[in-house]
């Protein structure tokens, strides 16, 4: 019974971390286009380029980390 409680606490902790990460991301990415085009004077084309490069980097990191995880012989120790 004790191991299951520890697992439940891990799930709750990971859920809270995910929630706060999402909230902080939305707080930054919401006003970012206004900041880039307003005070910094960036064009809409540059804004689109910045957003696409950010998406590309995110996907590239996911692919690289997934490949590294698949090639590693270690088991994941989440619980």
How widely separated are the two ends?
A: 14 Å
The total number of structural domains is: 2
Helix content: over 70%
* Strand fraction: under 5%
| Number of helices, counting only DSSP H or I runs of 4 residues or more | 3
Radius of gyration: 19 Å
Report on the structure:
- This protein is mainly alpha-helical and 79 residues long.
- It folds into two domains: 30 residues; 41 residues.
- 78% of the residues lie in helices and 0% in strands.
Looking at this protein, list some descriptive labels.
79 residues; mainly alpha; 2 domains; 78% helix; flat
List the helices and strands and how they pair.
Layout: H1 2-29, H2 32-37, H3 44-71
């Amino acid at each position: 019974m004790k191991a299951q409680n520890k697992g439940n606490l891990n799930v709750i902790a990971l859920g809270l971390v995910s929630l706060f990460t999402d909230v902080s991301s939305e707080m930054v990415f919401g006003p970012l286009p206004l900041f880039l085009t307003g005070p910094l004077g960036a064009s809409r084309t540059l804004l689109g380029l910045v957003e696409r490069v950010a998406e590309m980097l995110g996907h590239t990191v996911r692919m690289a980390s997934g490949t590294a995880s698949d090639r590693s012989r270690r088991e994941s120790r989440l619980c």
